[in-house]
Design brief:
This protein is α+β, with helices and mostly antiparallel strands. It has a single domain, classed as Molybdopterin cofactor biosynthesis MoaD-related, C-terminal domain (Ribosomal Protein S8, Chain: A, domain 1, 2-Layer Sandwich), CATH 3.30.1370.80. It contains 2 helices and 5 strands.
Length: 90
């Protein structure tokens, strides 16, 4: 298995889990690490913490571990997951 850890900021853990389910995974656990499994890949939401920049500016940071059978499958998984996490300002 090929593994890559990434951090996502400003998106809550529940939404990130929902994105894995939209990509075809099933949630396996209900506590940290939250594990999502699908054919050929899996992901774990390892942790969520609050980062404080100023007293009024706080965001969350979520650590996610992606695992896939090979580099190409991992790249494809991360690409599709990043599409779901893209936020366009306005």
């Amino acid at each position: 298995m090929i593994i890559r850890d990434l951090e996502f900021r400003g998106i809550n853990r529940e939404h990130l889990g929902m994105y894995f389910e939209e990509l075809g995974a099933v949630q396996v656990t209900d506590t940290f690490p939250y594990v999502f499994a699908a054919k050929g890949w899996s992901a774990q939401i390892l942790s969520e913490e609050e980062i404080i920049f100023t007293p009024s500016f706080k965001i969350n940071a979520v650590q996610i571990r992606f695992e896939a059978e090979n580099e190409a499958a991992l790249a494809e998984l991360i690409k599709h997951f990043r599409y779901k996490t893209t936020r366009i300002g306005g």
